[in-house]
Write a structure and sequence with these properties.
The complex is a heterodimer of chains A (441) and B (687). In chain A, 43% of the residues lie in helices and 18% in strands. Chain A is an alpha+beta fold and 441 residues long. Chain A has two domains: 204 residues, Cytochrome Bc1 Complex, Chain A, domain 1 (2-Layer Sandwich), CATH 3.30.830; 190 residues, Cytochrome Bc1 Complex, Chain A, domain 1. In chain A, helix 4 runs parallel beside helix 9, helix 10 crosses helix 16 and helix 11 packs antiparallel against helix 12. In chain B, helix 2 crosses helix 8, helix 11 packs antiparallel against helix 12 and helix 12 crosses helix 16. The chains are: A alpha+beta (441), B alpha+beta (687).
């Protein structure tokens, strides 16, 4: 029955996979030292993106050294015997490039986009810090302070700034997702030089890295350059430590109220969900689109537009390498009550649990997913990052072309099933952020 | 420190088996040819100018329409223009909001509107449908009161959110400082202005300004020019042209001397700092490109001087940047950072020093070269997005740029010299004509900021950019004096408990100028009073029996009369704050003041005699913490303040056990030694 209906819709021109997205071609190989290399050629614009993904994030940290991976990311700009302190950024920018890096729970990512005649410089710079990073105490002390200001700017001095930190620390008690990549200021102060060296030797090795080059390149010449700069970097000698902790299945709802310097109550519900790439992850991810993708989505239409209980509502899948979180949250309108907003969010979730979404709504959902998927690869930097992520997390860079099929396998019944399986009270954390004036004395 | 460095160097070298000579950085290959495509363009009979950039890389098409109109002053209705822009997206005469939302989402498309733009994008297989939706929104919007009310509520929530966000506060106040609140760039929405917006204002805005003759439409992506043309003619060909009003403004000038403005964010761990002023700098002018170079060196990137100094050398901050923006009307300069509270003034010192340096010293050839390379790189990288070409074409039209402005961009950039940078810095970088804005913890930073102000004065601004006296704050909106008193009643035990007290005997002791003072104060309901002040060397007694009163000292007795007697009727009332209404005492909420670092509501009491006194109630606890009034004395009018502290439980009520009375002659600190209720003293005691 279902199949026939989809076929019918297809005839009307509403079929899912019909947009002719150009296949993204790439070449992938490994150097002897284990460096994973991905090349994507696109000569449209004379620019090239070079990135290295190191498979180390905050989840690899010692609980007594949270924030270490991110802090180390800062140190990676400190230089090498051939690059003086303060010169890393300058060298790339002086070559017309833009560069940066970021650290999340699962990985640390370094990237630069340069005019294509500067490809060799980009490879040289990345290879220098993989081969022979140099850190001095001036740099370490400076970055300790800088990172603390970063934490203030992002968390402490911003309304609701601690939301994610509260959410993850309540949701995870065993798994290292229980702390945020920014970590805690106290540990940043305690980290010693020897610890940086040990960290560097374990994780910043070619066999834990993926080099992606995307843009205006000549593939053969690029391979030569990769070999020239990276082949001599020795493989790591220490076994790479990855966390083995499994967060126990939750049996009771966790609730916390945070009284903050804010005006509007905020409600966040975080449900444990399976790791990215699993079938149920795709269903849950689609569910977040159903709830908050576009003006007609259920949270947006019902809670924001009709009931006017919220100024903002969203549901987000925290896609992580290990099981992550499905988050639903809302920010109350002026005068709104957290309890009422929570009830409204829950009512929408209950609807998904109780009733199958209609064929039409399901088709809309698939169209939205498809549109996002086929239009997202608009820059070489974006393509480079996606290729690296797919390769590292899923072991298949080609998912950049095919992951859509995994979404399209999800059925209406799956949406209902995963809602019932994961979106339960005992599986969740509920956070309220309330104005300080509401705190009981 | 040094030793550690060497140790580390050695360590890194041991890891180096390099065969390659890495001491020299690789040289760039031959410069790639930078091709700047052209946008196809055409104009409809109604004046709509259309630019098409064909690009088939993705199966996607984007339509962006923008209006080129003069700025508008919204005045007391600030916010109506942006509201009108949002209303455009809430339904048309053909499609209700629900239907519109449903149709857009079913295509997996995006459609958004603002007061000067409409944007739509989606898969190219739905190109015509997307054009249809967009045109419907532009031509046939259906402005509904119900939707206006929704947007109003959202706007008010947004304003509430912004109250605690230091960045939003800084942005708003910066606008007011740089342009002035009367200027279209400096005005902003308030709760009041948001509440004043009507549907007619929004309708009139759309009717007046959404006209094809001032509109530019960019169509980018998987579409041919001929298809674009036929679609635009079909869907927007009937859009009626009409002359649109022109507005001119007097542009603001940079301040004559440096001024410091401070917005208090109590407890902030970081200060948002912004050194800012307006500049007369037009888009596309000869100076514009040179200012781009000068600004990049000063603070336009993570290798700019501000960043290298404030972050990499001093570690005050996570980032420090500057911007020097040209504009059609009036441009602006801003140097900003977020620094930890304790180095707020040091960060400002460094920002000003860098501003001076780029004026007074020539930049090095190397620095200039690097900056030009980065700008060239930015330009080349921007070409990756096909929309860039459309923007180039639209900018060329709107700002009257030479036809080959963007084609010659790289050439003109490479011609900028060291001297150009210095002369442009002297013209536009003004370390002595700036507003220095800080959003941070006033308690910690204020006193160190006076040195930056030529008048040694720090202007305290509220989050709406209004100046105020920092010692007096506004009470929260909607709060009344009666509510403050009611909270005090609650805090001291509640009405029922307090009314159950029929009489009260307070004993206090303290010291003044070496003398021990003991006071016994008895009040009996409704308004009998007995007060005995014992100095050791003498006594003073005051009696009031509800109708008559007298005062005696050193054997001399004096009958209370006139105003004194009237005042005593209230003063003698037991727990008079329960009966202000009955006693004819009028209340007035005067705002908030910080007392000993804690906010207190200020309540003015106006007695039937016309006399006034002021009371202060702690915001947090609700307790009366201070009262002040003027009394007549043989020495003339005397101002007396009394502070109340150390509230302790007495049979379910709370009584201040520490009372400090300050007079021009000195202050007395009294400690309450005992409180008794309902001992039923004889009425004779008060006669």
């Amino acid at each position: 029955m279902k199949r026939k209906l989809i076929l019918f819709l297809a005839l009307l021109g509403f079929v899912g996979i019909s947009a002719q997205s150009k296949k993204i071609s790439y070449e992938q190989y490994k150097l002897d030292n284990g460096l994973n290399v991905i090349l994507h050629k696109d000569n449209t614009t004379p620019i090239v993106n070079v990135s290295i993904l190191y498979h180390v994030g905050s989840k690899n940290e010692d609980p007594q050294r949270t924030g270490f991976a991110h802090f180390f990311e800062h140190l990676m700009f400190e230089g090498s015997p051939n690059i003086k302190r303060g010169e890393y950024f300058k060298t790339i920018e002086a070559a017309g490039g833009s560069l940066n890096a970021n650290t999340n729970f699962d990985r640390t990512f370094y990237f630069e986009t340069l005019p294509s005649n500067q490809l060799e410089l980009g490879l040289y710079m990345e290879s220098e810090r993989m081969l022979q990073l140099k850190i001095d105490s001036v740099g370490v002390e400076t970055q300790r302070k800088v990172v603390k200001e970063e934490r203030k700017q992002g968390l402490e001095n911003r309304p609701y700034g601690t939301l994610l930190e509260k959410m993850f620390s309540n949701a995870f008690k065993v798994h290292p997702y229980r702390w945020m990549p920014i970590g805690s200021a106290q540990y940043i102060d305690q980290a010693k030089i020897e610890e940086f060296i040990a960290f560097y030797k374990m994780y910043y090795v070619p066999n834990n890295a993926t080099l992606t080059i995307a843009g205006d390149i000549d593939v053969a010449k690029t391979k030569e350059l990769v070999k020239k700069y990276f082949a001599e970097i020795p493989k790591g000698k220490v076994a790479i430590v990855t966390p083995k902790e499994v967060e126990p299945v939750k049996t009771a709802e966790v609730r916390e109220t945070v009284y903050d310097k804010v005006q509007l109550p905020l409600v966040a519900e975080a449900y444990h969900m399976p790791a990215q790439g699993t079938p149920d992850y795709y269903a849950l991810s689609m569910l977040t689109t159903l709830l908050s993708g576009g003006e007609s989505s259920r949270f947006t239409k019902e809670i924001k537009d009709k009931q006017q209980k919220a100024v903002q509502v969203a549901s987000v899948p925290f896609a992580l390498e290990d099981p992550g979180l499905f988050v639903a949250f809302g920010l109350c309108n002026v005068g709104g009550k957290a309890e009422e907003l929570e009830a409204a969010l829950d009512a929408e979730i209950e609807k998904v649990k109780k009733d199958l979404v209609t064929e039409t709504e399901f088709q809309k959902l698939k169209n939205q997913i498809e549109s996002d998927f086929v239009t997202r690869n608009s820059t070489v930097a974006g393509i480079g990052e996606s290729l690296a992520n797919y390769s590292v997390y899923f072991g298949d860079a080609n998912l950049i072309n095919t992951e859509l099929q995994r979404y399209m396998k999800v059925t209406r019944e799956d949406l209902k099933r995963v809602a019932n399986k994961y979106l339960t009270k005992e599986n969740r954390v509920v956070l309220y952020y309330l104005p300080k004036s509401m705190e009981k004395k | 420190m040094k030793r550690l460095l060497i140790f580390f160097l050695l360590l890194s070298l041991t890891a180096n088996f390099a065969q390659l000579d890495r001491s020299q950085k690789p040289k760039p290959g031959p410069a790639p040819e930078v091709k700047i495509g052209d946008a196809e363009s055409f104009e409809l009979a109604n004046g709509l100018k259309v630019f098409v950039v064909e690009n088939h890389k993705l199966p996607k098409v984007t339509f962006s329409l923008m209006l080129d109109r003069d700025a508008i002053v919204e005045g007391k209705n600030a916010g109506y223009i942006s509201t009108a822009g949002q209303l455009l997206r809430t339904g048309t005469k053909k499609r209700s909001k629900d239907k519109l939302d449903e149709e857009v989402d079913f295509l997996g498309a995006n459609l958004s509107t603002s007061s000067t733009s409409v944007f739509a994008s989606g898969l190219s297989k739905y190109t015509e449908k997307i054009m249809d939706l967009m045109a419907d929104v532009i031509l046939n919007p259906d402005f509904k009161q119900e939707e206006l009310e929704k947007i109003r509520k959202q706007s008010l929530s947004g304003l509430a959110f912004a109250k605690d966000d230091p960045d939003q506060i800084a942005n708003r106040v910066q606008g007011a400082l740089v342009y002035g609140k009367e200027h279209p760039y400096g005005e902003f929405e308030t709760e009041e202005s948001t509440k004043s917006i009507t549907l007619d204002m929004c309708k009139a805005y759309h009717e007046t300004y959404f006209r094809p003759n001032i509109a530019y439409l960019a169509i980018v992506g998987d579409i041919s020019k001929s298809k674009a043309k036929s679609l635009v003619e079909k869907y927007l060909g009937k859009w009626e042209k009409k002359d649109v009003p022109k507005n001119t403004f007097t542009n603001p000038k940079a301040p004559v001397v440096n001024k410091v403005a401070l917005v208090d964010k109590a407890g902030a761990v970081q200060s948002v700092i912004n050194v800012c002023y307006p500049v007369d700098l037009k888009i596309g002018s000869d100076d514009a490109l040179k200012t781009k170079v000068a600004n990049l060196i000063l603070g336009g990137s993570a290798t700019g001087r501000l960043f290298m100094n404030l972050r990499e050398a001093k570690a005050y901050t996570y980032g420090a940047y500057s911007s020097l923006n040209p504009d059609k009307l009036v441009g602006s300069f801003s140097a900003s950072t977020k620094a930890r509270t304790s180095v707020t003034d040091s960060a400002i010192t460094e920002i000003l020093a860098e501003m001076k340096k780029i004026r007074n010293e020539k930049v090095s050839e190397k620095e200039l070269e690097n900056a030009k390379n980065l700008l060239a790189g930015n330009f080349i990288r921007s070409l990756e997005q096909p929309a860039t070409i459309a923007n180039f074409a639209i900018n060329t039209a709107i700002y009257n740029l030479p036809k080959d402005y963007y084609k010659n961009y790289l050439k003109n950039l490479s011609a900028v010299s060291v001297d150009d940078v210095q002369s442009i810095a002297k013209k536009y970088i003004k370390p002595n004509n700036a507003n220095i804005l800080v959003v941070g913890s006033a308690e910690d930073v204020a006193k160190n900021l006076t040195k930056f102000s030529v008048s040694s004065k720090v202007d305290y601004l509220d989050i709406y950019g209004e100046k105020f006296d920092p010692n007096v704050k506004k009470a929260p909106e909607g709060l009344t004096a009666e509510q403050v008193i009611a909270k005090y009643v609650e805090a001291t035990g509640g009405k029922a408990n307090l009314e159950a007290i029929k009489d009260e005997t307070l004993k206090m002791s303290g010291a003044m100028q070496g003398m021990t003072i003991n006071i016994t104060l008895v009040r009996k309901a409704p308004n009998k009073m007995y007060q005995l002040v014992d100095f050791g060397v003498g006594q003073q007694k005051t009696l009031f029996d509800g109708e008559k009163g007298k005062s005696s000292q050193m054997g001399q007795e004096q009958e209370l009369t006139g105003a004194q007697l009237e005042a005593m009727k209230i003063e003698a009332t037991l727990n008079s704050y329960l009966y202000y209404d009955k006693l004819g005492v009028k209340l007035e909420l005067g705002g908030m003041e910080a007392l000993n670092g804690k906010d207190a509501y200020k309540v003015n009491l106006i007695y039937p005699s016309g006399k006034k006194s002021t009371q202060y109630y702690d915001v947090e606890s609700g307790f009366l913490v201070k009262s002040s009034n003027t009394v007549e004395s043989p020495q003339g009018a005397m101002s007396i303040s009394t502070e109340f502290a150390d509230y302790k439980d007495v049979k379910g009520t709370k009584v201040a056990h520490k009372i400090i009375q300050g007079t021009p002659m000195g202050s007395i600190e009294l400690t309450v030694t005992s409180v008794e209720y309902n001992t039923n003293p004889s009425d004779e005691m008060f006669k």
